[in-house]
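Sample pair:
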Amino acid sequence: MIGRLRGAVVERNPDGSCVLDVGGVGYEVFVPLGGMGALPEPPEPVTLHVHTHVREDAFVLYGFPSVADRDAFRTVLGVGGVGPKIALAILSALPAASLAQAIAAGDRAVFKGIPGVGKKTAERLLLELTDKIGAIASRATGPAALRPAATPALRSGPLGTVAAALVQMGYKQAQAERAVAELGEPEGRPVEELLRAALSQLG
């Protein structure tokens, strides 16, 4: 199994995958939404921590910027009814530290708007991950991940999820809030679409 890859990103695809050139071999790796824009341009190398998903008809690689995010992805995969596409969508909206906080707080609202995550799936995530929250939090940022953030709270719902994702990507909270404010009402739009629009505003 492949656990880590280091190379230059030579291709970025609309389906959320990129091609990583490692010693002349191109590996197609799916990365969380929002992480694509953070990948450096060649020839600067990037390290991705990889989960190898093997099925009878496919061999798919999922890459993450940190071991904590990869471990959180694997933990979410253990929840009944959650496959790799849904798990990647969750990690796109909620990196490991944010996921740990949401589960610790029992916050169902943060899952609203994530593709493939309905009310029942959100409840199952909270139920089945409660006893695993300590491991997710400790790998993400240490014990502090379970403590409330000192910064002012972002808005809730899908727009709050987008704002939190922007902050996690390195944007300042004020920048994230301004970008989200420009989006208007979500009106049922998926989080992935809202995040793309917000990134366009920031760009």
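The chain has three domains: 4-64, 67-146, 157-202.
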